[in-house]
Request: fold
Amino acid sequence: MGVVSKRRTIEEILLQSGLLNEENLKKADEESKKTGEVLQQTVLDMGLATKAEILRILSREWRVRAVDLSEMDIDPDVGKILPKQLAKQKMVIPFAKEEGMLLLAMRDPRDVFAVEDIQLRFGIQVIPYLAMPTDIRASISKVHGGEEEVAEVLEEEEVEGQTPQQAQVSHEDMAAEAQELTKELLEGLNASATGGGVEVDKGAEVEDIMQVDTSAPEVEKLVNAIILEALRLKASDIHIEPFEKKLLIRYRVDGALRKSTFKVPFTYRNALMAKIKIMGGMNITERRIPQDGRIAIKAQGKPYEFRVNIVPTVLGESAVLRILDRSGANLSLDQLGFLPETQRKFLESLAKPYGLILVCGPTGSGKSFTLMAALAAVRDPEEKILTAENPVEYNLEGVVQVQVNPDLSLGEGRRFDFASALRAFLRQDPDTIMVGEIRDEETGHIACEAAMTGHLVLSTIHTNDATSVLGRLSEMGVPAYLIGSTLECVLAQRLIRTLCKACKVPDDKPNPDLLKALDEAKIDYSKATFMKTKGCAKCGNKGMKGRTAIHELMVMNDEIRMMCKPGVKSEEIRVAARKNGMITLTEDGFTKVTMGLTTYEEILAAAK
Reply:
């Protein structure tokens, strides 16, 4: 499910290599379906190609080594490293052991999950080799002889007060429960998805998460189910958290955490985390330090990217997957809930040929989306726009987007960070520059200088409100004269939950505190449409569904520029900005309450 190039099927490999013609391939394919045997074994059994030819072509295509097990005697001590039932289930057999590494003959060496599963269970590095299925079965029988087959469990755990037989039954019950729950969840999601299911784009370079083989491990199905439920709920994050004897799956929906509707058996925790690490390109054997990775998938015809972070806890590893919609379609300022006057002033600042425009707010307040919507508003085929982002969250046509990597060394102690990208951009003849975040003096200084030398520069900064930005830049070490001469406007924003359109009802008796606050803010509510929550199936009986933004736009004027001096207080700047027509976050929110979009309590919680 990670980013992969399109793999050729065995049929395509055998046909395009010239080993089989279309007629023989059709016969072999029909026979394979009748017997249930894999195609390469059927081709060999039918005498359409030799074992050496099949192994050579497939090993070259899959870039693995091949082994002919029929020509070797496997040491029983090595072959019995894997129990008989496990070897038969995964169609593998160890045939040699060298310097702490286990050489494993496999029917399908591309099965990375099987390799990682064995590595995790037995604590040994596995090197996969390609072998023919009948040779593997013969070797298993020869090594294990007439051993009584004992059912394998996914993970051995000592349970106080249980015999090994009781523990085995418990694990098997959990496995059966996981399979049933996963099947039920996938069927439910499939039925509820638009168009009856997830569309498959055969030309895409990322796999669609509904393309799940029926023989795939249940862990993979669980991962798919977890992701699908997140997309169905339109969640922004997936939290996978280990607690004592349980694994909790939660989703952040509209800013609030919500428990998953299904449970994952506790015994799946290590395998589930290993699968996520594989998909995210992380080190599956490292469990002592935090790790970061990225997963790219395609579902319902849309590309998604997941930023993955895994941290070790006292009870196991905890993962958070941030969901990024990579489609970047229809980015517009109209989607962000601007009040007409605020949007007009913001667009006036964006229309200027040069200057610095900053968007501020806490993490998860939609700053990146606002910046990309702003770029979409100023986009012009006759101008060059460059962005430096970490990561690139939204794709925007006609914009050159660069993903910075602070971990990448450029030599002499330099890093490919925002400052380095900005410095390089100035030699790329840009008209407009967007840099993901101003977090230090160097980035702030270069951004201001770029704005001063004829470029429109957009960026974000972490402050609680618009008027605090001047002090924050000054604390970083950016000279006051640069701030005053280059800054055009600062937009502060928060995301608030909106009332569910399907079930909200008129509020005939609005909160007296709300009416008092509206009077103090001098907001006319004579024609207001106050609404309140009710709850229905569409919003999960929460009464709230979806989010919009509240804004605070400080537009610079001569008075505020003159105040850009070291030691200036934020309160003094706020007075000047209010005199210049700035609407505060709270006032913007109260106006949206009068429009019937949200509640008084929601504004107090967001703008406190």
